[in-house]
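Recap quiz, item 2
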Amino acid sequence: MSDLPKAYEPQAVEAKWYAAWIEGKCFEADPSSEKPAYSIVIPPPNVTGILHLGHVLNNTIQDVLARRARQKGMEVLWLPGTDHAGIATQAKVERELRENEKLTRRDLGRDEFLKRVWAFKDKHGDIIINQLKRLGCSCDWSRERFTMDAEYTKWVSHVFVELFKEGLIYRGKRIVNWCPVSLTALSDEEVVMTPQRSKLYFMKYEFTDAPGEFLEISTTRPETLMGDVAVAVNPKDPRHAKNIGRMVYRPFPHTPIPVIADDHVDIEFGTGALKITPAHDKSDFEIGLRHGLEIIDVLTPDGHVNCPEVPELHGLDRFVARKKAAAMLEERGLLLKVEEYENNVGFSERAHVPIEPRISMQWFLKYPCVKEAADAVATGEIQFRPERWAKTYAHWMENLQDWCISRQLWWGHQIPVWYRKDKLDDLKNAESLDTSHLSHGDLFVGVEPPADADNWVRDEDVMDTWFSSWLWPFATMTNVGEKSATLKKFHPTTDLVTGPDIIFFWVARMIMAGFRFEGELPFKNVYFTSIIRDLQGRKMSKSLGNSPDPIDLMEKYGADGLRFGLMRIAPVGSDVRFDESSVEEGRNFANKLYNACRFRQMADEIEAPTAEVGDDEVIGMANCFHVDILAKLDQLAVDLERIYGEYRFGEIAQRLYDFLWGEFCDKFLEAVKGDLRESATPEARAVTLSVFDTVMSRFLQLLHPYMPHVTEELSLRMGYLEEGEFLMQEPLPDEPVLAGLAAEEIAAEQSKAAAIYETAGRVRNLKAEYHVGSRRDVKLVVKGAVEWLSEQQQVLALLSGAGEIVLDAAYDAPKGTPVSLTPVGEIYLPLEGLIDVEAEKIRLSREIARIEQEVVRCETKLGNESFVARAPAAVVEQEKARIVEWQGKLVQLREMLAGLG
RNA sequence: GCGCGCUUAGCUCAGUGGUAGAGCACAUCCUUCACACGGAUGGGGUCGCAGGUUCGAACCCUGCAGCGCGCACCA
């Protein structure tokens, strides 16, 4: 091993092990297993997407959970797959078509276009899957699913049909969020409210019964005023009481419209008069319904004015028309003023343009099993982490709006509804459709097409992508009408790991679907990950170019480095600011681990005898450093078990890091280095090697979920496992390493080790103070040494960098010899006349002053009767002990100062 | 407008009542036979502000401020 490179090179190792795990079928779940089940379904990434850091965090957490569960003896299913991502995928293909062939999807026709999308999916669909594999994800790839698989599509249709029969799905003309670019309706969740700097136009409409008298109105959208059918005022508004029931002239087309009264109008806002455009505003639409007003649509689907009566505006883009309309008002002397104004405008989540509220015929769903779904989270049957998201969920569940599930797209699950050809026009124009039409035979709703298909025409729309995603936990496990062995074993799933940004889109809807179609919750725990931002706190996005490519990071630092680095900084509650240096630290950690093992291998190559020491004998021969590290390992295992239960992934990473680096390498390895030299006794060598192996083999196991590749590699290299065995399949041992040793004995040994470590630190800092920190030949004299110090004298010399340590109870220190009070005695550092006496005097005086202050502080505290009476006894004792300690030190320091003259 | 978070060292963040912590960055030293992707030492914080509870508050309570995020029919 010593001929290997000094630094760990992860790339080849990681590829090798991933292939080996696949070859060994390590990820495949067995539904017939006797072991308890543990399951996760992956949040399916977009099939044509590419991996970003959010995916890395999310999937690393899932992999950690899955791998840990396997170690805990569970039968694990991590079910992977991809989502067809209707709008996103269709838009990509349309763009490619436009750029390469100057064609639109309509030029190709539906069938041909869909062929193109499938081809695109086949070409790009594996990219993100392969990226997940590169990351080391232990998904059961034999069960990979896609939301448009034939069987999955059946589920989607089946669910539609069932909910339609139940009367929860209906069709109707409503105001929907219309995207003028994608040319489809969107759900409320797909609209992002964005503050905009816009203009508020104040205009006046003339009363028909009083020429020269005007009603003042403000609006942000003058381009829609051709669709005005009324002006509304609040009935409680005294300013307008006299106006209710009168008529005013809409400027263009010049037509009288009524002034009506409606509670919705805010008296405080502007002039208290609101123009009503039912076709282009949701609340206007509702007011229109209440008052039986006409609906005049003056915009085309792609956001252009459609109003031949006003030729100046007809055909203009909506934003061009806005300026033009304002100019026209001004020409007519009807524009009073224009103010700068900030308001919230809904933007299309995908197309990034303002959505248009638009009347159109769409399919809607009234959510099923709302109460069960709300209760499941409220009662804690489904546990949210962090818990506060439960409140967000509850709020949404209490204010559910019907879900617009139809999309005017081609890529997706086509609505399983057929219309009779001869009734097509009637049906398409009908205001609404309900289940009664089913029996009339004009409408056919079914998973399979009607038998006499030639007489029917299928609804052209497809369903919202989330209408398939919400079935993911069970539709990936079983076919319609079956209860597969997989479903029986693994549903409900154990943990769901996802981002809080899709709590409404996905999480809430899955819970409802789970209750409705499987009669049970879909998962028991939901862990919401942090949102990853850049160092400026901005979201990662392609357009900002602030999103590092995880593949590049893995090339540079290894998948294990990326995983560990990201997990270590991922906080439980809030967002995380990403910096590449954290990944670098992950890489460094893997390297540290690798080198610790390399050190062990090199020790084997030294030609020095090793005694045969049986496992049982090791503990008996162990010194305090051995016992100490073994005890810390046991403690680590116990702590990790608890922290896993709390899903505190960052803390787990931190504990692993601190143990390996701080305890194992910095302390333990340094303390036992002497045991591995040729000069050491065979027994000491044997015991130390044995302890090393015990700790390292168990530590590799504990670290494995976070850094699967390097731990697997080292377990084999170090001989902890045979060729053909996998660390990922090794169950975690239940027994502590030190099970056979009494707690008091462990504590006694640990306190010795702690004393030596602390003493070494004090000596090093004493050396540094006198600028001999790098010298390893200094002589130390210990006065008043604890009786056991002679046993560990060599180790202390090694750790503190001393050439010689002399125990001398009667040592008479030369004047000004630096001294440190340590847990093992007074340690002097004779400087052989090299010190600057004056500087030393100043240093001592400062130290004395500082300690005196400490003593005063403690005494004041102890003089406080309330403190003594109310504080726990242990705390009071601690304070007292502290004073004794400080005073002892003061005596020493004053003597030293006096000694200097 | 309502709700939820956050505010601790230059940066990123731990720390849920008992003497303020880590990593990075910084400074000095060390190319000592696991590791410079390393080792040693050190400087650096009135824990956002103001009150309150308590013997004792970064931590609990109440206000306030700043930042961020949700939700909402302000034209």
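The longest strand of chain A covers residues 191-206.
Chain A is about 45% helix and 15% strand.
End of item.
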